[in-house]
Please model this.
Amino acid sequence: MEIDTMAREAAREVMDLGAKHMTGEMARSARNGVLASPKVTDFNGPAVEGEGAAGPKPQIGPVQQTFARQTQALSAQLSAGGVYTPLKSLTGPASASDDELQEAWTIPITQPKLLATGLCYDVRMRYHCELDPPKQRLDFHPEDPRRIYHIYRELCQAGLYKDPQFNVPMIEKPLQRIQARNATAAEICLVHTISHYNFVESTAAMADEDLIHLERMYDSIYFNKLTFSSALLSAGGAIETCKAVVSGRVKNAIAVIRPPGHHAECNRPMGFCLFDNVSVAAKVCQADYPEASRKVLILDWDVHHALKASGNGIQQAFEQDPNVLYISLHVHEDGNFYPPGPYGDHMHCGAGAGLGK
Model:
């Protein structure tokens, strides 16, 4: 898509909202010409260079004057390939319509094609591993630390990210690194109970024998002394990856993280998962970027989904949230596929305010 076309599409909704504050003639000028050529009547002085140069000057208020100035700035910024910086306030009497107009100007407009794709990866996430692995190599736990390394290695060998250990030609615009960090307890507890957080934290101080015994009490999960720190990095990496996209630092991003999270429920780990990384990241973005995250789509592609009665991690986290659409692609087989239960069928599509329609 050409830059000029992108500019038109990005600003159309703003233009439609702002045009209702203008006279009929000025609305037509805004729709038909301002984005292609910033020849707009200067409402603070004589008419300039285009429509409105002749004839009586229209009577307009301060809101329309602000709209005209911001429209000129928007056209100039988009033509230069930059980010539009809005005026911070409107003059004149406040009203619901004026507030809507101001809200429209507070969303930065960035040219997506100028941004890189992000990559989040941290070797410390590989420290979560089995203490007592099986003696036969083919029987290793499928959630193996080497999983994320092999993904990272493939990206590097394809020339998508520069790492000194891989001497390969790089693509013109390589992946932009996003640094992982530890998620905070407050962030984790947007989804999980404090007792669940304290339980995972307690594993860092347990003896090896106790950790081996503990893993036998849970469904497809293991622990070691570094499990908690790896889980914090995994959740924090998911958060920073999503925030980088929402804030406009990258066009899109890949989070190569582990332990995984989508099966973890609010009060217990299971199915390889300790903290529900995606749900935590979505909740943080909803809190930190409420306007940009008003509607969220989570697409979950995994062979497993349903639990016996209580639901899956992500589905459970957003079941009553009308602003999050959760789509899960999984094997169900009338509830007979592991783990068995009805919760993953097509009839379960939210509850309360989040009920699907």
User: Anything to note?
Assistant: The mean pLDDT is 76. The radius of gyration is 26 Å.
